[in-house]
Amino acid sequence: MKNVARKRHPEGGDYPLGPPARRRADERNLVGHAGVVLLRRIADKTGLTTALARALPQGTGPGWRDRGEALVMLACAITLGATNVLEAEQLQYHWQRLFPRPISDSTLRRTLEAIDGPVAARVERVRAVIRRVVWTLLALRPGGFPWISVCGRELRGWYVLDLDATIVTCTSRKEGAAGTFKGSFGHHPLGAWLANTRECAAMLLRCGNAAANDVADHKSVLAAALRQLPLPIWSKLLVRIDGAAFSHALLEHLQALTTSRRRVRWVTGWAINTADERAIALDGGH
What we know:
Number of helices: 9
Low-confidence stretches: 1-18
Number of strands: 14
Strand order of the largest sheet: 12-11-7-13-14
Shape: globular
Strand content: 15-25%
Mean pLDDT: 84
Helix content: 25-40%
Distance between the termini: 76 Å
């Protein structure tokens, strides 16, 4: 693209002022997705990168790369749009101003392969510890901890947890990919998000044909999310789930979560069909 600055000639007509101004769309003097710098800095400043390095298997040698740094780099690359480890490596080289020491795709694969059950449990504990640090910093800021508002009313003191399943489509026979109940093909993970901070507290990766209203899966994700949330004593928790939670077993489980130190309320829904409407009308007639 060219922008040519022009000035009116005293005797009429225009003439250009100096060479044309050019806007480049290449990697020269340009850093794209600069917001990811904040993501990386937060991981370092809060201690997440160091804590992950301690939780992951360590080694020695001149070519050994920090596994905590590798995971953080991978997360940043995914934020930039990487969909596999090869793209994650290439993105690091493409944006070397953000990643001065790119990590190879083979190192990223070895890092992920090293995360077995015990290591994943240590990573989960690390996430909970660092989340407590971040929540403390949020509470100390001028605006305090973020509380959500519903219908114009601020739910001060309430931590709002949303559970929902989502469809992730794919076009190849990846591990766990299958036909979904919506007629697509891919995966069907179930996650939990804290509405106050918009952070994902827990995620259960599931096959594409996993049921949307599986009670055991909901209990598992809810338990993992509660382990992640640094709720204070005498906390108030609101759990929101759509129609997938409308089963006696799950509702009874939600009701039992209230303890002497934690008050739990829940909101769920159910799409009323024709049969339900007939049953309601029949009951109303009596």
